[in-house]
Specification:
Blueprint lengths: L13 H6 L5 E2 L1 H7 L7 H5 L5 E5 L4 H14 L4 E4 L11 E3 L2 E2 L2 H18 L7 E2 L2 H15 L4 E5 L16 E4 L14 H8 L9 E4 L5 H14 L2 E4 L28 H19 L6 H9 L6 E7 L2 E6 L4 H14 L5 E4 L8 H6 L5 E3 L2 E4 L7 E3 L12 E5 L2 H10 L19
Parallel strand pairs: 1-6, 2-7, 2-8, 3-7, 8-9, 9-10, 12-17, 13-14, 13-17
Antiparallel strand pairs: 3-4, 4-5, 11-12, 15-16
Length: 431
């Protein structure tokens, strides 16, 4: 089974598809004006900063969001998670307590939001377009309110201040590593990109949790945001206890869960610590050691150095799109399953494949054929996985490439991407 197609959500991509070619830019004003028409009270959300963790950064946001959500659920809260993009379905963008919204609820939600947009589009502020991520954000906020979520973890799409998650007012912000990606789009330098991402911090923000920053300029920009809003900055690194609090195995106690491999371990630490800070702001006790260990050990991160079986083959799937991430993925594969007999990858037509192929030099690379984007809203470039003889890849396969490539591989392998963690029966706290 390949990626799930739901025609209704293509309406979320329509304004971008129609207006961006003419030079229009995404419009937060349109999203803000649309909110009440789709049943979203942004003022009410902004009045509850203690209910919001916002996740920004260049890489590792999804990992941080999953671990933050799992930690909050372990404390007994009902948690809504907004993430981007989905792997096998756009339904994965909207989760409650670790589970993606059902297909029936998703179709109903998307239809209602799309219908409202059709009715009022002509009365919304002009001069820009409603971004797909903005419409998914509004749809998610409505769903979270309907489901009575106590807290939400909102992952930004690409930016920060320019992303619709900035319409919220978070008590805690989790900021993963800021890289050179999107120079010329989010800013002219790493410092400008870091400023843009830290733009989700508000005067209501109490804590900013960050991982190590590869660029000093990003660190300086983040510190400036902290000073400007008088919140506290908390740094984590690979030497911090995992999970925070240093759980230890003992008689009748589950073993301490291992952090995710590769670069994901740092993002997981950022997410857990951000959640613990939100619990502190709410005055809710941190989850017990046993419960937290059980929940975190069950967090699933398909496409992030995830391991799978296809018959006798052992596969690792990773959304690695830069030389550093590819190097980490190769090192992880070598250490865990042995040197890959094939590195299956897809390099989009618009991307310079030179640096990526240099990182793979000396490895048995199998490139998936493809071409330019199909033009279908929300889809990446054309990929022809059906032209690859998977049986000929050998016993150990590393599949590494863009998110939509990883999603197709995971669908081909039949991997469940709808459940990111299981929620134990924990009494819900009063807060």
């Amino acid at each position: 089974m390949r990626r799930e197609r739901i025609e209704e959500d293509q309406a979320f991509f329509a304004e971008r598809l129609a207006r961006r070619p003419a030079g229009a830019r995404r419009s937060l004003a349109r999203a803000r004006a649309l909110a009440p028409h789709v049943g979203v009270d942004l003022d009410a959300w902004r009045a509850r900063p203690q209910s919001v963790v916002t996740v920004v950064g260049s890489k590792g946001k999804g990992t941080a969001a999953a671990f933050a959500s799992a930690t909050l659920c372990a404390a007994g809260l009902r948690v809504g998670t907004l993430s981007s993009p989905g792997l096998r379905s756009n339904r994965e963008r909207i989760r409650v307590d670790g589970r993606a919204i059902s297909r029936a609820d998703y179709v109903r939600l998307v239809r209602e939001v799309s219908t409202a947009l059709d009715l009022v589009a002509g009365r919304l502020p002009d001069g820009g377009y409603l971004s797909p991520s903005g419409l998914f954000t509004l749809a998610a906020l409505r769903h979270f309110a309907e489901r009575g979520c106590d807290a939400i973890v909102a992952e930004a799409g690409m930016g920060g201040a320019s992303d619709e998650v900035s319409l919220l007012s978070p008590a805690v912000v989790a900021l993963t590593a800021v890289l050179e990606e999107h120079i010329g789009v989010l800013g002219a330098s790493v410092a400008e990109i870091a400023t843009e991402k830290a733009g989700v911090v508000t005067d209501a923000t109490r804590a900013l949790v960050t991982g190590p920053q590869p660029h000093p300029a990003a660190d300086a920009a983040i510190d400036a945001a902290v000073r400007g809003h008088r919140c506290e900055r908390h740094r984590v690194d690979g030497g911090d206890p995992w999970p925070p609090g240093g759980l230890r195995a003992g008689p009748g106690r589950p073993a301490t869960p291992s952090p995710p491999p590769g670069l994901g371990g740092l993002s997981a630490r950022v997410g857990v610590l951000a959640a613990l800070h939100l619990l502190g702001v709410r005055g809710v006790a941190a989850p017990g050691a046993d419960v937290l260990a059980a929940v975190l050990s069950g967090v699933r991160l398909p496409g992030r150095l995830s391991h799978h079986r296809r018959g006798e083959q052992r596969w690792i799937v990773d959304c690695a799109t830069n030389p550093t991430a590819l190097t980490v993925a190769l090192e992880h594969a070598d250490a865990s399953i042995g040197p890959p007999t094939a590195v299956l990858t897809f390099i989009p037509h618009h991307r310079d494949g030179g640096p990526l192929l240099a990182a793979l030099r000396g490895r048995p690379v199998v490139r998936v054929p493809g071409g330019r984007s199909s033009g279908r809203p929300g889809e990446g470039a054309v990929m022809r996985l059906d032209r690859v003889d998977l049986d000929a890849l050998g016993p150990r396969v590393l599949a590494a490439g863009p998110v939509y490539f990883a999603g197709e591989v995971l669908a081909l392998l039949g991997v469940d991407c709808e459940t990111s963690f299981e929620v134990p029966p924990v009494p819900r706290p009063r807060s």
